[in-house]
User: What shape does this take?
Amino acid sequence: MKKTTQLKNLIQRKKISFLMEAHSGLSAKIVEEAGFEGIWGSGLSISAAQGVRDNNELSWTQVLDVVEYMSDVTSIPILLDGDTGHGNFNNMRRFVKKLEQRGIAGVCIEDKIFPKTNSFLRGEKQPLANIDEFCGKIKAGLDVRTDDDFSIVARVEAFIAGWGLEEALKRANAYYEAGATAILMHSKLSKPDEIFSFMKEWGDRCPVVIVPTKFYSTPTEQFAEHSISTVIWANHLLRSSITAMQKTAQQIFNDQSLINVEDKVASVQEIFRLQNDQELENAEKVYLSNTNSKKAIILAASRGKELGNLTLDKPKTLIKINGETILHQLVNKYQNHGVDEAVVIRGYKKEIFPDIKCTTYIDNDEYEETGELTSLFKAKDYISGDIIISYGDIAFRNYILNELNEVPYDIAIVVDGNISRRSKEYLGDYVYCTNSFTKSYNRENSMLIECNLNSIKNLKTAPQGEWIGLIKANTHGSKVIKETLEKMNKNPDFKTKKMGDLFNHMISKDIQIGICYIDGHWLDVDNIEDIEQMQVF
Ligand code: SPV
Ligand code: MG
Assistant: This one.
């Protein structure tokens, strides 16, 4: 429902309604979160929050800027305290037009003379507006509004100025006849006597709004009994913030330390929540994914049957090394390397994966019948921008990521160029490359030719090394990987395909894959000895 309609309904409904004061975007949000149905944009509070007086020291456009912030962060309507309308009928026209444009639901104008003074200051000395002139201002506002539900509340200051009930009734009636949505009848007495005497005479001509700042001890049921339409709690967020700020400032000044206030103030996290940082974080995923953010995709769906009992109740990525799971160590490593988000594809015992900061889980429920490419394909929406793709059961020294980063190819993989440590039977991702590994190998022109999951004894010619399960790609490279996966996925045998098949397919399409050679300093978990060795990483 439109905010204007919401406010009109609040004011006009039979049941009493309440508007809570706000004076900034933040306080407006707090009002809505507390459950209020509408906001009072208080002139006193807005001016005080800027450190100036409630005497039109703020220009009307400055007030407009504040209420725009308030309106932007809330979905409940705002009735703005429009003081005297900031001039004559003509100023009122422009004011209403601009308020409508900024999403304000209604304005309340008071029958005083510009520049006004707050009603609780020297009230008797304040001149009241000419009735006809004020009615003209109401009519001008009504005529210029483009939305018939925009409320114009006319505030009667007769009691404040000490002019009595008769004058209050005369003015209220004139404003009602001029078309005001409601009358705000103000009083500075500590009892609601003036208001109730007015209500007795007024009947139900049009809704009446009150501000019980001074008669605060009156039970709210009495307002309802006297058919008050709307009650404005006019300045209590500003006042509570003043008390809290004074206390906190004094405490910190006295202590020259934060120790006594930390637990008594809202957390920084709470500020971020109120600012809706969550929305920005989500938007960054959508809009920045191709530019700044760096992601790591970790393939961790398989159990690791070869580890027997060790993986009965958990997948191998959740085996703890030095008290921390392999997965956690990998995520930490990637985050330290500038990765903003880790995407983990899980399968076996997916329900026991722990919450890890900045980590998203994707499920491959067919992990038993599918190969690595099925898992990777499930994360296809994340294959963009700078990415790292890795197995979930590897450990390696930190410098390897830096080395990989230096390889001047859109896509590059890390290869252990020293396979002498592998037995002839060991099943590994063996690779053939354009250059062999030497201490002076040239990373500018070392490229992958083929990658096969096999054992050395079954390979016809000796491979140049073993791929360790780690890839990097830049924006262009990740686009190529994603497109290749999409093409390969159309093939019925895609389900069984492995990472090596992806590399070989890309190479068959003349896509170059760079090599980052290393000599050891990594491990994947295939047996208990590997786990023991991993302790050193
Ligand atoms: C305000 O909140 O600015 C008001 C109400 O106008 S009062 O301060 O009571 O005048
Ligand atoms: Mg005011």
